[in-house]
Write a structure and sequence with these properties.
Layout lengths: L8 E5 L6 E7 L7 E2 L4 H5 L19 E4 L4 E4 L2 E2 H7 L2 H10 L5 H12 L6 H4 L11 H15 L9 H27 L12 H10 L10 H13 L7 H10 L5 H12 L7 H12 L5 H9 L20 H16 L6 H14 L2 H5 L7 H10 L7 H22 L27
Antiparallel strand pairs: 1-2, 2-3, 4-5, 5-6
Helix pairs in contact: 2-9, 3-18, 6-7, 6-11, 7-8, 7-18, 8-9, 9-14, 9-18, 10-11, 10-18, 11-18, 12-17, 14-17
The structure holds carboxymethyl coenzyme *A (CMC).
């Protein structure tokens, strides 16, 4: 936090009284100043009200920065465009966890450390049999990642930095295995054990797509695309699922259970579930000629239809991840020899029309990361239900980095919001015969 700026303040005065409170203004490295309201209740006896937390900073963080007006996303200060082009997912994972890019030696040790943990306990394998084959893979993810806490609880002292480090490794390494097995279970194919000789993204594609009977052929372009998709989803500051992980973790809970809570939060269509929802929406629209009718429904006040993959709480400009996604989409389709993808044509036309429509322009609604990711993943052979799972695989790195930062923050305390109570005032119990 910035000392100089912390001398600045805002004064809140209660109407109709001579009581006021001085709120110190805090600034970070970049971004707007933040009024410190911690003493407001003690000084004036009032809370602040901010449903959806649109104007509330709940923590201090050094990990990710977003400038929503400019469409800027930085991981530890590095622009997402540079990382997507030049880095790899495991290097980004190191950066998010440790704050700096690794040297070659640090990178080798980190990769070996993570990949060493890719296998699941054999007993965990049996968990899959308890699920229906048609279970949504996000349900399986919540269950199996949560179950990891049963395997690593007794030995887990979250106050020990080494334990935190190993827990981060275990999560980052095992989540692709859990995800791929959720998919294999749903289609009745044998589980493929991880191969540590492949890289992180290549191993994930292998576990998803390989079968024991046919030699596996790695595709460099698709592996690179997968790696880039993982980088783009790796962290996004205090979004709903990350805040869920932090809130759950603020109680001192088991980190594997906290990540399972994050997965549950990610699942919703307003958050990570949007990539799946985009494809369903495109299928529903069906043809370019139906776009005007669909947009009329979205803009109408009567329904709940939204243009999925559009809009963001923070970005009031083009989501920088969406731009890279669009470019990756073209690369993947070219590699797969897909000359004309009706879905891509439909999405591009939908984007073009929406971006020239006053409803979307005036509300600053632009494509977000989920708008194009589904088209790429579908082309790569991922079923729609796995899209959000893939998001969860990537975001695990962000969640565990944020969890670690929170545990290591000396000012950290249990997250406990307050409320405006609008229920009944105190009243006396009435026996059933008199109601
Ligand atoms: N389609 C149509 N109208 C929209 C949309 C949309 N996608 N998004 C926002 N609006 C309208 C909304 O109806 C409201 O209009 P009005 O002022 O007339 O009432 C205005 O824009 C502001 O919307 P809001 O709901 O107050 O905005 P929010 O910050 O609470 O919601 C959001 C952000 C992402 C939940 C929302 O834009 C949305 O539902 N988008 C579609 C789902 C989606 O793509 N989610 C992925 C987000 S990026 C990846 C991730 O975080 O996981």
């Amino acid at each position: 936090m910035n000392d100089v700026a912390s001398k600045a303040k805002v004064t809140v005065t209660m109407d109709g009284s001579n009581r006021s409170a001085e709120l110190p203004l805090i600034t970070g490295t970049i971004g707007p100043a933040v009024a410190d309201i911690r003493k407001l209740y003690a000084d004036l006896g009032i809370f602040t009200y901010d449903p959806g937390y649109g104007g509330t900073a709940a923590c201090e963080s050094k990990i990710t920065y977003i400038d929503g007006d400019q469409g800027v996303l930085l991981y530890r200060g590095y622009p997402i465009e540079q990382l997507a082009e030049k880095s790899t997912f495991l290097e980004v994972a190191y950066l998010l966890l440790n704050g700096e890019l690794p040297t070659a030696a640090e990178r080798t040790e980190f990769d070996r450390g993570v990949m060493h943990h890719t296998m699941l306990h054999e007993q965990l394998r049996r968990f899959y049999d308890g699920f229906r084959r048609d279970a949504h893979p996000m349900a399986v993810m919540c269950g199996v990642v949560g179950a990891l806490s049963a395997f690593y609880h007794d030995s887990l002292d979250i106050n020990d930095p080494e334990v935190r480090r190993i827990s981060a490794f275990r999560l980052i390494a095992k989540v692709p295995t859990i995800a791929a097995w959720a998919y294999k279970y749903s289609i009745g194919q044998p589980f493929m054990y991880p191969r540590n000789d492949l890289g992180y993204a290549a191993n994930f594609l292998y576990m998803m797509n390989a079968v024991p009977t046919v030699p596996w052929q790695d595709n460099e372009i698709l592996t690179r695309a997968m790696d880039r998709i993982l980088i783009l989803h790796a962290d996004h500051e205090q979004n709903a699922s990350t805040s869920t992980v932090r809130l759950a973790g603020s109680t001192g809970a088991n980190p594997f259970a906290c990540i399972a809570a994050g997965i549950a939060s990610l699942w919703g269509p307003a958050h990570g579930g949007a990539n799946e929802a985009v494809l369903k929406m495109l299928a529903e629209i069906g043809h370019v000629k139906n776009i005007p009718d669909f947009l009329a429904r979205v803009k109408g006040k009567d329904g709940h239809a939204r243009l999925m993959g559009f809009g963001h709480r923070v970005y009031k400009n083009y989501d920088p991840r969406a731009k890279i996604m669009q470019q990756t989409c073209h690369e993947v389709l070219a590699e797969l020899g897909i000359q004309d993808d009706p879905l891509l044509d439909l999405a591009q036309e939908l984007e073009r029309i929406a971006l020239s429509d006053d409803y979307f322009v005036s509300r600053k609604l632009y494509p977000n990361v989920d708008f194009y990711s589904g088209i790429i993943l579908k082309a790569m052979g991922f079923p729609t239900s796995m899209f959000t799972v893939l998001f969860a695989v990537a975001r695990t790195v962000g969640w565990i980095s944020q969890w670690r930062e929170m545990i290591e923050d000396p000012s950290q305390r249990i997250g406990r919001p307050r409320q405006i109570y609008t229920g009944a005032a105190q009243r006396d119990y009435i026996p059933a015969e008199r109601r």
